[in-house]
Amino acid sequence: MFSSVAHLARANPFNAPHLQLAHDGLTGLRSSPAGPPGPPHRSRNLAAASVEEQYSCDYGSGRFFILCGLGGIISCGTTHTALVPLDLVKCRMQVDPQKYKGIFNGFSVTLKEDGVRGLAKGWAPTFIGYSMQGLCKFGFYEVFKVLYSNMLGEENAYLWRTSLYLAASASAEFFADIALAPMEAAKVRIQTQPGYANTLRDAAPKMYKEEGLKAFYKGVAPLWMRQIPYTMMKFACFERTVEALYKFVVPKPRSECSKAEQLVVTFVAGYIAGVFCAIVSHPADSVVSVLNKEKGSSASQVLQRLGFKGVWKGLFARIIMIGTLTALQWFIYDSVKVYFRLPRPPPPEMPESLKKKLGLTQ
Question: Per-domain residue ranges for the chain?
Fold first, then answer.
């Protein structure tokens, strides 16, 4: 067991290409073998799928991207809505730490003041906003991953795959946050300003009347600050953790694992990625919560007022929420792919052309 953990620790998801080759057992190499990017390859090891299974569409086709977007809607919309009570308490701890002193105290105070129904405040903007975000996050991630892979070529896409995951996820989240921002602003108003509004139907017109469209998008820059690092960690860490689990922990190749066993690996890798996501994105999340509650404040002013200690309020609640959330999202997303019989590429392997350059084939 401990040897498996040690292997995982060494298999960190941010290896540079020459370190990656050394990690793959090619320690005799003195320089990176990658030449200029070759011609685009549609059928790459990074996107390879088992030929034994009959898929409903081709990898990288329009139908593939649409169904991936649908998977993102289902995974993000349902999970975020299910965790609305925890998110509500976390937001209140961030904007009023004197009153809501901890996660358990936060639930107790909320139940006394608003009752059980109060824990569901903000469910409508949460469901709509994060469904739209999931559509863009997962759908565009697949689009950008294929686009950037083809730009790099087969060999460089393998050597620089962590950078590829980071770039594709950052590009996707940029658009996802634009879709999320209006509903996130309404949700925070409903959850953190008692008496302001109880429903999205009440909150949206009131916000527009008071501040115009600015009310819905003034938090988009802090959202980028929070969500882009979060999503980069979410996708890159997940992809590399899955690769490491199959290489060092799972006792048999992925091709020999059942669908259920593969989904268990997906869940475990998702939870590991979620813990890191929560830590990376929490300070910006605190700024977003306070910024959407207050009028006339800027992100820099809120950050200065909160201070170093203040931006970490509610971290424990966020780790629980985001760890569970990320694991469930990946599990649901992968389950949707299984249901629709979409191509699910195995962990990437070194291309044959690169093996030949390195003298690894006869």
Answer: 56-343
What does the pLDDT look like over 268-323, one tens digit per residue?
999 999 888 888 877 877 777 777 666 667 777 777 787 877 778 778 877 887 88
Instruction: Provide the whole-model pTM.
Output: 0.75
Range 56-343 classified under CATH 1.50.40.10: yes
Helices 220-244 & 299-310 angle (0-180, nearest 10): 50
Tell me the residue type at 293: K
Give the number of other CB atoms < 10 A from CB of residue 57: 16
Residues 230-249 pLDDT 10s: 899 899 999 999 999 999 99
Q: What is the 3-class SS of the chain, one letter each residue?
A: CHHHHHHHHHCCCCCCHHHHHHHCCCCCCCCCCCCCCCCCCCCCCCCCCCCCCCCCCCCCCHHHHHHHHHHHHHHHHHHHHHCHHHHHHHHHHHHCCCCCCCHHHHHHHHHHHHHHHHCCCCHHHHHHHHHHHHHHHHHHHHHHHHHHHHHHCHHHHHHCHHHHHHHHHHHHHHHHHHHHHHHHHHHHHHHHCCCCCCCHHHHHHHHHHHHCCHHHHCCHHHHHHHHHHHHHHHHHHHHHHHHHHHHHHCCCCHHHCCHHHHHHHHHHHHHHHHHHHHHHHHHHHHHHHHHHHCCCCCHHHHHHHHHHHHCCCCHHHHHHHHHHHHHHHHHHHHHHHHHCCCCCCCCCCCCHHHHHHCCCCC
Give dist(CA 168, CA 232) in Å, integer.
8
Integer Cα distance of 161 and 147 in angstroms? 13
Query: For residue 73, what are its two tokens?
Result: 């809607």
Residue 87 to residue 189: CA distance in whole angstroms: 13
Please report how many Cα atoms fall inside a 13 Å half-sphere around the Cα of residue 60, on the Cβ side. 16
